Amino acid sequence: MKFFIDTANLDQIKEAKDLGILDGVTTNPSLMAKEGITGQSNVMNHYKAICEIVEGDVSAEVIATDFAGIIEEGQRLFDLASNIVVKVPMIKDGIKAIAWFTEHSIPTNCTLVFSAGQAILAAKAGATYLSPFIGRIDDTNWDGMSLISEIAEIYAIQGYDTQILAASIRNSRHIVDAAKAGADVVTCPLPAILGLLKHPLTDIGLEQFLSDHAKANSK
Ligand code: E4P
What we know:
Bound molecules: erythose-4-phosphate
CATH superfamily: Aldolase class I
CATH class: Alpha Beta
Shape: globular
Order of helices and strands: EHEHHEHEHEHEHHEHEHH
Number of helices: 11
Structural class: alpha/beta
């Protein structure tokens, strides 16, 4: 399973990259706004800055919601760097645009996915990645992770190439469950990635090893 970081914060992207496990980045308009990145040229420059840090795929989301607008914006994003993936919402014109991008060899990430039916449509259109939003489904008291399992089963039966990118990850447990459910990629906030490191027995064990070593070597 590939690890992406779900942020537009350059320091967090660098920190995840320094861990040596980072395969890519996802952003969305809310994450860009959170970093205070506004205005078209600043947004474009920020994507370029992210692509200079990370070699893997960087999802950049279109704002347009009509076919012509999505195509025009997606092409501009794609031209920014060789690792840009155009992120397109799961709407009628979005699916049409994903099919067009597929025909023109432009990689896509179909976002805001909440059902298996949407996942089938995106795969038929040739999306490179599909982003089901786990946390947001959990927020409605449904089981987000069961959607990942259902899509993984359908994609395996049908032989679809679209990669399942588990999104809206809220904690480290989600990462483990996404791996079990068959996600190809997981995109996570930095704390969820760092949370995977933690276990109290690791801390206790390490403290013991270091203290035994110090005692033995002070004699
Ligand atoms: C990433 O591609 C999604 O936009 C993101 O994971 C959404 O996460 P959220 O539900 O925490 O906003």
